[in-house]
Amino acid sequence: MVASIATYWNEPRGVSRIRLCPSPGSKAKSMRTSLPKTPPFGPPGSMPSRPVAETAAAGPRRRAGKRDGPATYAVTPQVRVASDEGTAGDSEVLAARIRLLEGLVGRAEIADCTQFALQWLGEVLGVTQSICLVRHEAEPCLIVVGASGMPGSAVASYTVSLEEWGNPLVTAFTNRKALFFPAGPHSADDRRRRPATPFEDGVFHVVPLGVPGLSDNPIGLLLVGGTAPLAEEFHWFTAIFSRKLDQVHYRKMRIAEVQGRAESDRLNLIIDSVADPIVVTDAVGATSLMNKPAERLFAIPAQASAIEQRWVQANDAHFSSFIADMLVSSDRRRVGEIGLSDPKTGEPMPVEAIAGKMLSEHGELTAVVTILHDRREAIEKARLYEQLKQASDELERKVQAATADIAQQNELLRRQAIELEQASALKSQFLANMSHELRTPLNAMLGYTSMLLQGVAGGVEPPVKRRLGRIESNGRHLLTIINEILDISRIEAGRMPLQLSTFSVPDLVSEVKAELEPIIMRSKLVVTLDLPKDLTPISSDRQKVKQILLNLLSNALKFTHDGCVTIAAGHNSKERTVTLSVTDTGIGIAHADQHKIFEDFRQLDNSPTRAYGGTGLGLSICRRLAQMLDGRISVESQVGKGSTFTLALPTKGRK
């Protein structure tokens, strides 16, 4: 006896269940059915046609052919089924139904469920051409979510607009009414009543999808080709398939609702975290949402005084006027200024309002979002900036005036420098000429004095000889002064040539000591030499090095009353220099005066009663000569303990 099958979903929004009830008088037994694996998706033409499909679609059932061996369905769990003992054809129909149910339970996407269901429809019921259309979530139209046996180009862009009320498909969808459209030829009226579908002039059925009473609107339409009337098995399929689509649709609605709620919560969090007031109004200007800063401006506190209430009401009136102007205008965005009041102090509060319209997909106004920015701080900054700009302009004018004055002073200084340079050049030229003119008669006087002292003109009495000796001594001192002035003038005028030669430093030191031997003997000082034996010769101007060393040794003898004088030499291989130092135990030089002694005509004691004579040009000449030789002179001294003058020269002088 054929079992009567009743299927239902006890949980239409959740898990599907199947109950198989035997007919009265039949012997039932429980069994676990092992279902064949669902074949892969593909065009229906590639699947073998089964006799059971033709039987289920056209009339009485016949036994289906055997499959290629049973296999456990791997995607969904097995279902325990209670069945009557009946024919083999009834068992295969039952197995096919269970396979459909298991396949739908294991799928969560509409496209996946649809493709599997249409494939099952082609295998079991022999429906070779089918199209499933589902209502679009955002637009009023039906879109294709699955097709079987139809050309891909025909269904790729096929849609049905729900706003075309004259379209029979829209009528079938709205009224949940199945339709049948036969094949051609068609009259002109038939063609007007026939909808445009991928079936073109072919025969097809239109079946609405959706569970009556479960949802207000149907889910979609199922278009199937074929001339035979739809069998009971097909109606069972559409009921099961509609319930599954409704479940998936309901699940997506719940997910969208949760996502919308989460987006709303995030939007509220973002709005509340903004420091500026934000107000959202609907299409008629009523406030639908505002953050806490906006509430302080437009919401009356619970214990507000009468004056505070008036301030808040005035703020609301000003804002409502701004929104009303925004609603009647065609602008999508507007920026304006609203004069509000501080709800606590009543202080004027100018704000900048930036409003933007939110439109739906069809261009309809849904809301207006307004952001209010307090301009008091900006106005104060602008005022301070204006004051700062005025102060900056005033400072710039003063700087320009000072710059012009400095430029004028610099021009005067430049002219004075030129004049001083010219005067210095004239002075050097004058000194060079005068020194030459003074030295010529002085040399003649010294020559005649020397001849008288030698008795060339006859014998000289001792008193006269002493006076002639004083004349010669003072004359030679005057000649030394004239020579120093001549040297400094020649150096300044650039007329001091260099004559490079290679010489031995110890020989030069011994020669200098020998020339000053009479002065050393009169001073009764001990002069020692500290010269290394391996000191290499140097290439420089020997005469100028000798002049520097003579001057340094003469100064040491001059300013040392007792003690000793040491002449030392050394070699620095890293810097490729040779050092000559003269160390004495004389009066010393204070640290503050050590840089002054190398200036022209400068002596530490400039008083008329100074104890030491001289022109103050000796060390100045030494410094200039050392610079000409690419060397340098330095001094280390302490008052009362003596001084050390060091001359550093390169081992190879420049040509």
Report what the structure shows.
The chain is of the alpha+beta class and 655 residues long. The chain folds into four domains: 3-247, Beta-Lactamase (2-Layer Sandwich); 274-374, Beta-Lactamase, CATH 3.30.450.20; 380-470; 498-650, 2-Layer Sandwich (Heat Shock Protein 90). Helix content is 44%, strand content 21%. It has 15 helices and 22 strands. The protein has helices at residues 51-58, 88-105, 110-124, 152-155, 168-175, 188-193, 232-273, 292-298, 306-328, 376-453, 462-492, 505-515, 517-523, 542-558, 618-628; strands at 4-8, 17-21, 28-32, 80-84, 130-135, 141-148, 159-161, 179-181, 204-209, 220-225, 278-281, 287-290, 333-341, 348-359, 365-374, 500-503, 526-530, 538-541, 564-572, 577-584, 632-638, 642-650. The protein has a six-stranded antiparallel sheet with strand order 7-6-5-10-9-8. Strands 12-11-15-14-13 form a five-stranded antiparallel sheet. α11 crosses α15 and α14 packs antiparallel against α15. The longest helix is centred in the middle third of the chain and has 78 residues, at 376-453. The chain is elongated and about 170 Å long. Mean pLDDT is 78; it is low at 1-86 and 606-611.
